[in-house]
Each structure stands twice: as structure tokens, then as C-alpha cells.
Amino acid sequence: MLKTKSLQGRCAEPRTAHHAPGTDLYQRQRGFFAQVYESGSPTPWPSTEPTPAVGRLAHLMKRHKGGGRVLDLGCGEGRHTLLFAKAGLFTVGLDYLTAPLKTVAQRARAKRLTPRIRLLLGDALMPPLRPGSFDALVDSGVFHHLKKADWPIYFDHVLSLVKPGGYFHLTVFSTRFKHYPGERRTRNWYVHRHHYDRFFVKRDFTEIFSRWCEILEIEEEREGLNGFFHVLMRTRPANRRRVSQSRPC
Ligand SMILES: C[S@@+](CC[C@H](N)C(=O)[O-])C[C@H]1O[C@@H](n2cnc3c(N)ncnc32)[C@H](O)[C@@H]1O
Description:
This protein is an alpha/beta fold. The protein has a single domain (52-246), classed as Rossmann fold. It has seven helices and nine strands; from the N terminus they run αααβαβαββαβββαββ. Strands 3-2-1-4-5-9-8 form a seven-stranded mixed beta sheet. The protein is globular, with a radius of gyration of 18 Å. It starts with a helix and ends in a 14-residue tail after the last strand. Bound molecules: S-adenosylmethionine. S-adenosylmethionine binds next to loops. S-adenosylmethionine binds at residues 33, 45, 74-76, 79, 95-97, 100, 123-125, 140-142, 145.
């Protein structure tokens, strides 16, 4: 069994892949998210207010495309699912927990957005969806909870859900993010309160994603303890993918 303490003491991150037997880090992470939603306290991330960066994407899609299908991966309580539906886009909100999906369903009913929303209970790394079925994918807060060993699954099974030329919006922690004032970290990943966090610097996005996507915009948000990157990308057609530039961590 992996223990939080011993993980923090190692210099290499856990190499077990998502579905490998014996890995319990993701189970504990799921338990962490479940506990957050079931506690009745406000979530550590905003529940209803979309990020300005995702707001701009919704506006862009509404203006230029006048429609389309969006996947909100790890949708939580649906702040972005509801935003896209309100902008007239058909939106799928996927999460592996029932509690936040029930909240999205209630909010959708109250705002009369139900016809434009489909909610799916499932794992982001095994999405029960067809490749190429979305014009945009929004990942606000899932990728930074994935171990590097699982990135290939994300590239193959998640990015492929977006049509070539479609949008991919990513919000992840930057290295400036702090869990508490004065926190010091010596590396770019951390297991904290039973969940895995990875922290990024600006050049990471080219190294990680440029094989699959063209990077359109990178915005850094920094306020108080918060530090995030909001990255807008466009997926490349399969025949225009670049040779991988990833380097070992
Ligand atoms: C940090 S919260 C962000 C929620 C929402 N995207 C937002 O920006 O408000 C991450 C969400 O992703 C969900 N999640 C994390 N890993 C997941 C996975 N492998 N499959 C499906 N959902 C996942 C969690 O249940 C949680 O609701």
C-alpha cells in the first residue's frame, strides 16, 4: 500500500499506471473528492462561477460556430457545463461521482437547460464516448491529478474525443499554487490529503501537448495562494501531429 508520507520522501513519482492492479492512490483520490462533495462545506474550487478563460471559449464558440458539442471532463458541480449549455451548445458533463452530478442536474432543471445537457457517470480515462464526437473539450482540474505514467492514456482516450481542429481548454495548477501560506515544495508533484497534485511551468505545455495540439493562448492566474494556468489549444489532425518532444521528468 502506498503511504502519503513515503511518497513525499521519494524523488521519482509513483510509476503505477491508472488501471494497474494494486494502485490505491487513485482510489484514495476519488475518496478525497467524494468527501469534499459530501461534507456540505464549500468546495475548495468555485462551485458556480466559471473561469474567465472558459467564459471566453464559450463566447468564441457561440459567436463563430453558433453551436457544437462540448465535453466538460470532471465537471464537478457543473459551473462550466451550465455555462456552455447557456451559450446554446450541447454539453456533456462527465464525472466519476454521483453527488456533484446530482447538483448539476438540479441546477440545469432550475435554469431550464436540461435539453442541452447530458450527464455521464464515468472515469475520465475510460470515457464511454466516441472519438471525434466533440468540438471542444474542457478539463478544469483533472489533468493535474493524473500521474505522468497515465498521460499516454489521456492523449489516446481523452484528446481523441475532440474533432481535429477542435478546442481543448486546460486549467491546471502552476508551481506558484500553495496549499497553505508558506508551503515549500522541492519538486513538481505532491501527494496531499490523499490526492495527487502536479504543478506546471509555462514551457511544460509545449513539451507535453505540442505533438497533439497547437497552443493558442496561455494565461497565468495568480492571486493569494492560487496559481493556475489556463491554456487554450486546438487539436491537430492525425497527419499533422508532431514528433514527441517530451523529455523524461
Ligand atoms: C478540482 S474538481 C473541478 C471540478 C470542475 N471541473 C470545476 O472546474 O469546477 C475535479 C473534478 O474532477 C472529478 N474527477 C477527478 N478525476 C476524475 C476521473 N478520473 N474521472 C472522472 N472524474 C474525475 C472529481 O470528482 C471532481 O469533480
